[in-house]
UniProtKB/TrEMBL annotation:
Residues 1-99 form the XPG N-terminal domain. Gene3D superfamilies: 5' to 3' exonuclease, C-terminal subdomain (1.10.150.20), 5'-nuclease (3.40.50.1010). One of its GO terms (biological process) is DNA repair. Its cofactor is Mg(2+). Belongs to the XPG/RAD2 endonuclease family. EXO1 subfamily. The keyword Transferase does not apply. This is Uncharacterized protein. Residues 348-363 have a biased composition (Polar residues). Residues 620-661 have a biased composition (Low complexity). Residues 662-674 have a biased composition (Basic and acidic residues).
Length: 766
DNA sequence: ACGTCGCCCACAT
DNA sequence: TGGGCGACGT
């Protein structure tokens, strides 16, 4: 795994979000997790050497889901193992083999369940498997790249180059590599958690104020990472404290040795530096220049020769072929696919592990120019997205809070084309895939000639997403998707239980009817708007947490209770209900009934079980909602259907995220001069007024119904901001401060700010 | 009292 | 496998 405990340490800056928020963006995806999860669904077949490609379906379902949300995935595959890792990997590989044998034996013994369990652990994601997925990606015109070494470095490189604007991964190592926006815990419904590097200063578990990337990286390494064994009893907190106190690793080690409390290897410092350099300079493939580059430009006094542990340089020609997937990054031989052309599941299977041959079959690889794969990512207009997406997320229902949450989900993103059976094998297990492949390397390895390696095991399991996106023209775009009607669901779910979801959330086999309904709705947007509103809730309040969502759900539930089941999506009464709700949400036409529901919802809602925030929220919720609804003129959204994304992302506006805002506060509180940052509030730049208005409202922003998708706004919000300092506190800031925050201290300030902001907004907005 | 480490439970399949 | 919770050690 990456850095154990890192994400929990950053918990206060986790921003529960929805994938939809990233609509219009290209996000890097660690393909390993998806492949691994997909492989789990067919672990037995793989172990038996059967020609299955179910794992491709799994990954492609996720791809569709992303597309459904308007997100362009840029898949990044792992390449070769770092030198030091080779040995480790070999032993691991053997372990897998043993596990496989055990599993097969169990299978023969008539214990399929146990067999599968064992085989899952023995899953090995091979370059051939990656290649199969790549073939599917090519057909779907999805950008991808095979990293020369670790996908982590490649993902961060792409993000730094602006090729992607965020990274979907479960590996906390990415933050150590320098990822700016890490999107984790993505589930099949599009729910996820965003961790922004910029929010670090707002971290409440430990203070990162005054810290730079280097210190953060050192803290992580010091506590133990994939490239360096940890020092017993020295975790993140301690590493953080030590760094704060002594500033340099050298001093820390010297002190620790002096104290004699920890046992520190003689070569610890050397290994430490190797680990540090591995995070800094690991090789990545530059899609633009088509050659290997160091993640971070090497300083003049450093040459790749001195960094044997980051792997060796690969000639551009070869690197390029590896990058597109034609060559096995490990063996450096061509990957030959037996007979992939037929889309059906049953194509020839690749031998589990070694189907690397020398001859390449022409048909297998389309002869597109390599560039083609790197360059075009198409973005999907929101319009294409399926409007009806609400549905309950069963998983989250019980999740942290325990309360059921309802969300808008895109369901069937089904494109007809590639999908095999719409079945979603949704999430495979969540076991961390990467671990299998990579692991932390023992220090000894590092020392040993290579330096170190990196085997980072990561826990990557990307959240599941099963849905497919239907953007393709051929299919019926959004309307076509056969998914359970969102509306119905909302109602149902809300009212009923989350279970409503049923098996295929994204693809409902019979979904056609639902589709029609959606399209019909002029107001589809309404759905979207609702979704937005829902989404917002979480964001706003909580950027803190998910409980918010639940509430939301709860609200709906109250209503839904009356409603019918979600089954008849389009036609059902539930649908009507949904409409009503939507209407309420939507600015222009807020049905009273809807409002009423919202208002009373609070009551209905099961209160947040969570101790801290609950009280506040609940009390205010109803009022907030009503107020929000009435107050917020979401004009922006109302005018246009959510489905259409008209506005191009306006990026100029630096938007502070709630976390960032907190950060500022923290900073201001802290020593650093906050003034410039905090003071600067300027007129909101963002395109969407609606949002601002929302923010400005004293009420908890979470409850404000958002307008249908305001693409520009979303983008602006999400867009990486230039310098944090320069950013002006915006509406979002307020959100941060909203009830969602646990921090009591901040709360007071927040409240005050909101008010302030509101005034500002009003001026500006009006 | 805090932090780390180990055990138990769970999620999703 | 990962997260949460409880116990032990500093």
């Amino acid at each position: 795994m990456g850095i154990q405990g890192l994400l929990p340490l950053l918990k206060s800056i986790h921003r529960p979000t929805e994938l939809k928020k990233f609509s219009g963006e290209t996000l890097g995806v660690d393909a390993y997790g998806w492949l691994h999860r997909g492989a789990i669904s067919c672990a037995i077949e793989l172990a038996q050497g059967k020609p299955t490609r179910k794992y491709v379906d799994f990954a492609m379902n996720r791809v569709r889901m992303l597309k459904h949300f308007g997100v362009t995935p840029y898949l990044v595959f792992d390449g070769d193992f770092l030198p030091s890792k080779a040995a480790t990997e070999a032993s691991r590989s053997k372990r897998r083999e043993d596990g496989k044998k055990l599993g097969l034996e169990l299978l023969k013994a008539g214990k399929p369940s146990q067999a599968h369990q064992e085989l899952q652990k023995a899953i090995d994601v091979t370059p051939e498997m990656a290649r199969h997925l790549i073939e599917a990606l090519k057909k779907a015109n999805i950008p991808y790249v095979v990293a020369p070494y670790e996908a982590d470095a490649q993902l961060v490189y792409l993000e730094r180059q602006g090729i992607t604007s965020g990274i979907i991964s479960e590996d906390s190592d990415l933050l150590v590599f320098g990822a700016k926006r890490l999107i984790t815990k993505l589930d099949q419904y599009g729910q996820c958690v965003e961790v922004n590097r910029r929010d670090f200063n707002a971290c409440r578990e430990v203070s990162f104020i005054g810290w730079d990337d280097r210190l953060f990286r050192q803290m992580a390494i010091l506590s133990g990472c994939d490239y360096l064994d940890s020092i017993p009893s020295l975790g993140l907190k301690t590493a953080h404290r030590l760094l704060r106190k002594h500033k340099t690793v050298e001093r820390i080690i010297r002190t620790l040795r002096f104290e004699g409390k920890h046992r520190i290897p003689a070569d610890y410092l050397a290994l430490f530096h190797q680990a540090e350099q591995t995070f800094l300079y690991q090789w990545a493939f530059c899609p633009t220049t088509k050659q290997l580059v160091n993640l971070t430009t090497l300083p003049p006094d450093l040459s790749p020769d001195q960094l044997s542990f980051i792997g060796s340089f690969v000639e551009p020609q070869l690197a390029q072929r590896i990058a597109v997937g034609d060559i096995n990054p490990i063996t450096k031989q061509e990957i030959v696919i037996p007979a992939p052309p037929s889309p059906r599941k049953r194509t020839a299977s690749t031998a589990h592990r070694g189907s690397i041959m020398q001859s390449q079959s022409p048909r297998d690889t389309p002869k597109k120019p390599i560039d083609a794969y790197f360059k075009d990512y198409h973005r999907k207009p929101l319009a294409e997205m399926d409007p009806n997406c609400f549905h309950v997320n069963p998983g989250r229902v019980t999740n942290e809070g325990t309360q059921p949450i309802v969300f808008p989900l895109p369901r069937p993103y089904v494109d007809g084309a590639d999908l095999s059976p719409p079945r979603t094998y949704l999430n495979g297990d969540r076991r961390s895939p990467r671990v299998l492949r990579r692991r932390t390397e023992p220090i000894s390895n590092l020392l040993a000639g290579n330096g170190r390696s990196l085997a980072s095991g990561s826990r990557r399991r990307t959240g599941g997403l099963e849905a497919g996106a239907s953007h393709h023209p051929g299919n019926a775009i959004a309307g076509i998707n056969p998914r359970p009607p969102k509306k119905a669901r909302l109602c149902d779910d809300v009212g009923l239980r989350l279970s409503a979801e049923e098996k295929s959330k994204f693809f409902s086999p019979s979904g056609s009817k639902a589709q029609t309904a959606r399209k019909g709705e002029g107001y589809l947007m309404s759905d979207d708007s609702i979704e937005e509103a829902l989404k917002e809730l979480p964001d706003v309040e909580g950027w803190s947490k998910q409980p918010d969502r639940r509430r939301t759900i709860a609200v709906f539930q109250g209503e839904s209770g009356t409603l019918n089941n979600g089954e008849n999506a389009s036609s059902g009464s539930s649908a009507d209900l949904a409409r009503e709700i939507l209407g309420t949400v939507i600015p222009g036409t807020p049905p009273k009934s809807a409002l009423g529901r919202f208002s009373y919802i609070p009551n209905a809602l099961p209160h947040d079980s969570r101790p801290t925030r609950t009280a506040t929220r609940q009390g205010s919720i109803s009022s907030m909602r009503s107020s929000l609804i009435s107050l917020t003129p979401m004009s922006t959204s109302s005018s246009q259907p959510s489905t259409t994304r008209t506005t191009p992302p306006t990026q100029a506006t630096p938007q502070l995220t709630p976390l960032q805002q907190l950060e500022r506060k923290a900073v201001s509180r802290g020593k650093e001069s906050p003034t410039s940052k905090l003071v600067v509030p300027r007129a909101p730049k963002r395109s969407s007024l609606g949002r601002m208005s929302l923010d400005s409202i004293p009420v908890n922003p979470a409850f404000v119904p958002l307008p249908p998708v305001d693409v520009a706004e979303l983008e602006a919000l999400n867009r990486p901001v230039g310098s944090e300092d320069l950013l002006v506190p915006e509406s979002e800031t307020e959100e941060l401060e909203g009830p969602g925050l646990d921090n009591t201290v901040l709360t007071a300030k927040k409240a005050s700010r909101r008010t302030m902001n509101l005034s500002q907004y009003r001026f500006t907005l009006s």
